[in-house]
C-alpha cells in the first residue's frame, strides 16, 4: 500500500480563491479593506518567515496586513497593552500574536488580551470553549486547517479511533476537541504516555503535533490509517514519512500538508470576522 497525499497546498489555494471573492464583495459592500494585525516579538528567524508568509497571503486575497514588531526585551505588560490597543481599534478585524514569544513573557496573558471577536488564530480561552462546545467562535488555526483538509478529501471520522500525539493548548488539545465533535473516539498521547507505539498501532487517524522529528515510526502505523503530520522541526515532520506512507491510506507531506492550511484558515477566519464586525455596527 502506498498512501495518497492530503495536499494542503492545493486545498489551501481553493480556500484562498474563495476568500478573494469574499474580500472583493466585502470591499464593495462596506467600502473598506479587512485588516489582519500581526504582532511579532523578537528576532526569531522562523517567526519572521511565518509572519511574512501570512502578510503575502493577505495581499494575495486583497486584505491589509498591519505588522507590529516589538523588541524581544519588552515586558508582558507592554505587550498586553499593545494587543489591547489593537483589540479596541475599529479598523482591525483580526489579531495574530506570533508564537512563540520570548520566555520571560507570559504568553497566556498576551493571548487573553485579544478580543474574542478578533481572535482569528483561535488562541484564547473563549475561542477554545466555544469550539469545544460547538457554539461557533473561531477555531485554532492549525486544528481548523486540519479538519478542513480532512473534509476536502471526504475522510470519514465518525466512529473512528483518532490518536492525537501532543497536548498543546493551540494544537493538540483543540484538534482533539474538533475530532470529538465529529464523533471520533479520541485518545491523547504526550510525553508521559507509556507505550506510545501501542496507542499509535490502534489508531484509524493519527494526528502528530509535537515538533520532534520522526518521533512516530512508520512501522507503528496501522495499515490503512490516515496520518496527519502537524509537526515541523529541522525540516522534518513528527512522522517517519517514507515508512509511514507504505502503510497509511492517506498522509500529509511535510512541508505542503498542514502548514498551508493553517494560513488559509487564519485568512478565512479574518474575512469572517470582518463581516461579523460590520453586522455588529448595523
UniProtKB/TrEMBL annotation:
Q: What is its EC number?
A: 1.5.1.5, 3.5.4.9
The entry's keywords = Amino-acid biosynthesis, Histidine biosynthesis, Hydrolase, Methionine biosynthesis, Multifunctional enzyme, NADP, One-carbon metabolism, Oxidoreductase, Purine biosynthesis
Q: Which CDD domains match?
A: NAD_bind_m-THF_DH_Cyclohyd
Q: Where is the Tetrahydrofolate dehydrogenase/cyclohydrolase catalytic domain?
A: 6-121
InterPro entries in the record: Aminoacid_DH-like_N_sf, NAD(P)-bd_dom_sf, THF_DH/CycHdrlase, THF_DH/CycHdrlase_cat_dom, THF_DH/CycHdrlase_CS, THF_DH/CycHdrlase_NAD-bd_dom
Residue span(s) of domain Tetrahydrofolate dehydrogenase/cyclohydrolase NAD(P)-binding: 140-276
Question: Pathway, per Swiss-Prot/TrEMBL?
Answer: One-carbon metabolism; tetrahydrofolate interconversion
Does the keyword Ribonucleoprotein feature in the UniProt annotation?
no
Q: From which residue to which does the signal peptide run?
A: none
Q: Which positions bind NADP(+)?
A: 166-168
Reactions performed catalytically: (6R)-5,10-methenyltetrahydrofolate + H2O = (6R)-10-formyltetrahydrofolate + H(+); (6R)-5,10-methylene-5,6,7,8-tetrahydrofolate + NADP(+) = (6R)-5,10-methenyltetrahydrofolate + NADPH
Quaternary structure annotation from Swiss-Prot or TrEMBL: Homodimer.
The family line of this record is: Belongs to the tetrahydrofolate dehydrogenase/cyclohydrolase family.
Q: Any idea what job this protein has?
A: Catalyzes the oxidation of 5,10-methylenetetrahydrofolate to 5,10-methenyltetrahydrofolate and then the hydrolysis of 5,10-methenyltetrahydrofolate to 10-formyltetrahydrofolate.
Name it. Answer: Bifunctional protein FolD
Organism whose genome encodes this protein: Amycolatopsis deserti
Amino acid at each position: 500500500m502506498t498512501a495518497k497525499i492530503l495536499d494542503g497546498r492545493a486545498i489551501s489555494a481553493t480556500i484562498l480563491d474563495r476568500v478573494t471573492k469574499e474580500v472583493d464583495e466585502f470591499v464593495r459592500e462596506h467600502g473598506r479593506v479587512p485588516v489582519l494585525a500581526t504582532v511579532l516579538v523578537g528576532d526569531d528567524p522562523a517567526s519572521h518567515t511565518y509572519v511574512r508568509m501570512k502578510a503575502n497571503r493577505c495581499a494575495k486575497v486583497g486584505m491589509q496586513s498591519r505588522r507590529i514588531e516589538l523588541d524581544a526585551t519588552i515586558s508582558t505588560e507592554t505587550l498586553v497593552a499593545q494587543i489591547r490597543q489593537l483589540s479596541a481599534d475599529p479598523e482591525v478585524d483580526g489579531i495574530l500574536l506570533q508564537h512563540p514569544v520570548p520566555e520571560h513573557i507570559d504568553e497566556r496573558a498576551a493571548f487573553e488580551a485579544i478580543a474574542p471577536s478578533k481572535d482569528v488564530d483561535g488562541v484564547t480561552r473563549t475561542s477554545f470553549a466555544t469550539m469545544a462546545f460547538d457554539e461557533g467562535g473561531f477555531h485554532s488555526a492549525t486544528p481548523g486547517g486540519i479538519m478542513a483538509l480532512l473534509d476536502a478529501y471526504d475522510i470519514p471520522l465518525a466512529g473512528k479511533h483518532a490518536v492525537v500525539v501532543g497536548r498543546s493548548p493551540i494544537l493538540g488539545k483543540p484538534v482533539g476537541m474538533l475530532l470529538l465533535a465529529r464523533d471520533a473516539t479520541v485518545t491523547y498521547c504526550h510525553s508521559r504516555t507509556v507505550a506510545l507505539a501501542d496507542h499509535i498501532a490502534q489508531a484509524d487517524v493519527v494526528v502528530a503535533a509535537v515538533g520532534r522529528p520522526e518521533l512516530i515510526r512508520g512501522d507503528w502505523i496501522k495499515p490503512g490509517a490516515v496520518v496527519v503530520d502537524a509537526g515541523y522541526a529541522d525540516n522534518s515532520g513528527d512522522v517517519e514519512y517514507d515508512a509511514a506512507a507504505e502503510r497509511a491510506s492517506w498522509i500529509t507531506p511535510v512541508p505542503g500538508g498542514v502548514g498551508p492550511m493553517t494560513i488559509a484558515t487564519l485568512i478565512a477566519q479574518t474575512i469572517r470576522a470582518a463581516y461579523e464586525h460590520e453586522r455588529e455596527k448595523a
